[in-house]
């Protein structure tokens, strides 16, 4: 179907809308909960609310806070946790934590910054690494960094990766040729030089693996855990997850990664008789070799597409005989310097084929600016030490908060897209990812040449799961319904009921 446009004036702003656009849907928040009892240790009270409907189809986004707080006057006194009892072989830091006596006066701040009391009043310093020059590893310092399973980036690391436990475990960085000292939390760190050249490719710089037991968390993390109420309050626990992530990286790979998604014109491919083998060959660039991040050790590559690839990358035109087969290239780059990433993106946007020289320039910057390109996640509540006061109720509350957090930002609160579009939720707004040949806020516009040639599957969108039923016979049950509003004949794929043990 073809769409016409109409122009509406809103004050001095002109808004262009398609006539068959779905009506705008504005964000809708639930009512606030009651204020919690006044916390006598912080003199604060909290309340929270939820998202009922996300903004969609050019409606207002859900950018409002989930939690709220204000000062209050407590009616009870603050009960502080007693300091831990140190063993005879331990020394008490100014902050109250206990460390082994042999960690005093070794040049390391083993009490955990900003507490430096273990290095005060030292007449002699016994450095674990002696006079050997060792440096901190940026990759090791980032080990265990929090990740958010919904995609947003947390701001804090729960672990104290400047704690060495008096050991001098070293590894040589092949890029700088300097020795890096491994923190206690990192059990294994391997530097690698692997290059993969594909439409989705990566440069692996290093891998790390956290210790299985005895991880040292930061004092800031423990303070924030201690501030969590023993009675579940959604807003406070959500804020904790957004600070530290829903999970931490138990094992990870650092380096750089790029991903290219090519949207092809099937009609042009058939007209020019381009085979799948040719497409694959062109997209892989024909690069072989090794990149050492400071220079290219060996390699060969095509600086420009070969003649066979020109049929894919010709400039856009209305003439099918000269029109390129690539309609659009979607590009994602992680790691490396922003300037080199922008240059690589610009070349891809212009020519549609990854350029060898641009790739090498980007790869050389990865050692200085690596990104986390793969991780094995571990729930953040497992970072809370079991011997921490009231650890178990806080762990249980974080488990509940994790389930609530995923449900809060689910696309079940979105309306379905038309013509096989996929609904996603980004920054408080539902958007439709449209299949090739469709466009519009709901994928409702179909290119004229495809109207008769292709039929699009109409998919609904699953609504949110109901609450679990009461436990009966050791099992509980919940259901969901298929939302087909605005999508005639739409269906939902998947189960509408789910059972679990209880």
UniProtKB/TrEMBL annotation:
Homooligomer; about 20 C9 chains oligomerize to give rise to a huge beta-barrel that forms a 100 Angstrom diameter pore in target membranes. Component of the membrane attack complex (MAC), composed of complement C5b, C6, C7, C8A, C8B, C8G and multiple copies of the pore-forming subunit C9. The keyword Disulfide bond applies. Residues 37-413 form the MACPF domain. GO terms for cellular component: extracellular region; membrane attack complex; other organism cell membrane. This is Complement component C9. It is a multi-pass membrane protein. Keywords: Complement alternate pathway, Complement pathway, Cytolysis, Disulfide bond, EGF-like domain, Glycoprotein, Immunity, Innate immunity, Membrane, Membrane attack complex, Secreted, Target cell membrane, Target membrane, Transmembrane, Transmembrane beta strand. The keyword Transport does not apply. Belongs to the complement C6/C7/C8/C9 family. InterPro entries: LDL_receptor-like_sf, LDrepeatLR_classA_rpt, MAC_perforin, MACPF, MACPF_CS, TSP1_rpt, TSP1_rpt_sf. Disulfide bonds join 86-98, 93-111. GO terms for biological process: complement activation, alternative pathway; complement activation, classical pathway; killing of cells of another organism. Pore-forming component of the membrane attack complex (MAC), a multiprotein complex activated by the complement cascade, which inserts into a target cell membrane and forms a pore, leading to target cell membrane rupture and cell lysis. The MAC is initiated by proteolytic cleavage of C5 into complement C5b in response to the classical, alternative, lectin and GZMK complement pathways. The complement pathways consist in a cascade of proteins that leads to phagocytosis and breakdown of pathogens and signaling that strengthens the adaptive immune system. SMART domains: LDLa, MACPF, TSP1. It is found in: Secreted; Target cell membrane.
